[in-house]
Amino acid sequence: MRRHKLEKTPGANPTMHPDCAHLHSIQGSGDDSSSSSSPRLAGEGTGDVRIQLSSSAGESRENPSSRGSRPVSQSRSHGHGHGEAGGPEDAAAEPEEQGGSSLSELRYLLQWLHKSLPYLLILGVKLLTQHITGISLGIGLLTTYAYANKSIVNQVFLRERCSKLQCTWLLLYLSGSSLLLYYTFHSQSLYHSLIFLSPTVDFMNFWEVLWTVGITDFILKFLFMGLKCFILLVPSFIISFKSKGYWYMLLEELCQYYRMFVPIPVWFRYLMAHGELDTALRWTLGILLALLYLILKLLSFFGQWRNFRQVLRIFFTRPHYGVPASKRQCSESDDICSICQAEFQKPILLICQHIFCEECISLWFNREKTCPLCRTVISDHVNKWKDGATSMHLQIF
């Protein structure tokens, strides 16, 4: 009614406060329950319409929104700070999760093995029965090698006190084992491999080739171990104990060098595999594999040749570790060898001025390069295999 009345008043120029739009928006929000927030009109008599908003109404309308926004902002800031603090914890938890996954995989693997164990045992028994001859022969050859090698080393250590009967038994035992093996499998002509000939085996079967190479390697070991037993039987006035050590070293290096060449023809025929090369692609593949094998063997040949040449130099030069010691020098050392704790036998004075028996220090330098007392370097190389030992390495390829 008032607004309508004001519009009809002549000469009136009604003006509205710029905050009127804000008023309408607030009133339209449905907050009409508070009487103190209602607007008051002023200047009815002057013809001007003025709308005054109380500060309490503005505050009452702003406070809820500000109060409502503050917890949100606080909760957001709190959540952001908590997220930042939880970052290292998450990073530390990642390795734990990875460890847990690996443990679970290991647990699954163990469970699978537990469930598959009966089947694996069945397959193992079947394979054992199929290859019982080869497995039994391999165990027999390995035990024969271990027994003979240990016995020879013990006899070499005893020097002049070695048992001639024991050495004779070892020589006969090794020779008899080799002959019995070749006689048992004479149909395969395995002895042909010793002189780079072709045995009568199926070169297209991997296990046949592995069988031939393995037996030949053990037989060569037995052969050279028998030669070491023969040197043990030679009287010391013909070959001295010190010279025997050089012979053992030379024989072992020759054995390793020869064993490196013996498998070449067998593996070369297997890689070529003439029976299967019925196409150009298989021919090419076989030739490439055989050439690659020969290249690798040549590289190993040159590496072994340096060692063999050094052994030959030591064998012919017979390097000395010192000079004979005088009686006065021996008396200053109480005439007692620090190694054998007995009186000096052919005392040798080292460059570090320590005196030892010639045989004692020769045995020492079979394994070491330094003086037993002061650790001064005396020799520039280690004279391996002078103790009569044979390498355990199996030359398969």
From TrEMBL:
Main location: membrane
Gene Ontology molecular-function annotations: ubiquitin binding; ubiquitin protein ligase activity; zinc ion binding
A cellular component annotation (GO) from this entry: endoplasmic reticulum
Membrane topology type: Multi-pass membrane protein
Domain (RING-type): residue spans on this chain: 337-375
Subcellular locations according to the entry: Endomembrane system
SUPFAM superfamilies in alphabetical order: RING/U-box (SSF57850)
Region (Disordered): 1-98
Residue ranges crossing the lipid bilayer per the database entry: 167-185, 191-210, 222-241, 280-303
SMART domains documented for this protein: RING
One of the Pfam families matching this protein, by short name: zf-RING_2
PROSITE patterns: ZF_RING_1, ZF_RING_2
Compositionally biased intervals (Low complexity): 28-38
Domain of life, per lineage: Eukaryota
Stated name of the protein: E3 ubiquitin-protein ligase RNFT1
The species this protein was found in: Taeniopygia guttata (Zebra finch)
